[in-house]
Amino acid sequence: MAQMGLISRQIKSHKYRRCEEFHKAYGNILDRQFAPTAPNQVWTGDVTYIRIKAGWCYLAIVMDLYARRIVGFALSDSPNTQLTTSALKMAYHIRLEPKGVLFHSDQGSHYTSEEYAKCVAKCNGMSHSMSRRGNCWDNAPTERFFRSFKTEWMPKGGYEDIFEAKSAITDYIWGYYQTVRPHSFNEYLTPSEKKRLYFNKNLLSTV
Fold first, then answer.
1. What is the pLDDT of residues 152-176, one digit of tens each?
2. Distance of alpha carbon 32 from alpha carbon 128, whole angstroms
3. Which end of the chain has the least Cβ crowding within 10 Å, N or C?
4. Which domain holds residue 98?
5. Using only C-alpha atoms, what is the Rg of the chain?
6. Are 165 and 179 contacting, i.e. CB atoms less than 8 angstroms apart?
């Protein structure tokens, strides 16, 4: 290069902002304590992919660990923070804005984002727990729900489009999983039955 009079010129590398400025991970407060003693003590959340003819769509859920009941869910063509916040907002309003819930998720960017942190902060006294990186067993009940849906309900080839997927997911959650399907953790009661039994016992204890 020197003999030919050539000079090396290299493009300067672009300095991206470090994601830590906008994303924050939290400690594993839950620590696999998957058996709370009452509803609205611990909720868990996760996102999974659903096959459709054009590719993929994404399902976010919020589960109340007490009865393994789904209290919020959302479907989107993108696994972003808007998807996960929609599921959390649904759960928070359906459960009439409970106080002091521990919410547990993995460390996906749709949970570590500043926007999601703001959504959690708007929920009365809610705190955020996260699985250790790359450890799906730290959120095993939620992962189990996804496996149940995909093996019990979802066709092997997926769905025609996101609208068919949403209809099928809604039917599974409200029409089957919550009210018909027995759950081993609930001593083979459905999530709805276990929740109803809890509130009936508490009602009788106050009489």
1. 999 999 999 999 999 999 999 999 9
2. 14
3. C
4. 22-170
5. 21
6. no
Q: Residue 10: beta bridge partners?
A: none
Task: Answer whether residue 8 is part of any domain.
Answer: no
Are 44 and 60 in contact by the 8 Å Cβ rule? The answer is no
Say how far apart CA 182 and CA 104 lie, in whole Å.
Answer: 24
Q: Summarize pLDDT for 121-144 with one digit per residue, the tens.
A: 999 999 999 999 989 999 999 999
CATH number of the domain where residue 116 is located: 3.30.420.10
- Per the structure, the count of domains in the chain is 1
Closest CA to 60 of 157, 146, 127, 162: 146
How far apart are the C-alpha atoms of 165 and 174, rounded to whole Å? 14
Whether residue 196 lies inside any domain: the answer is: no
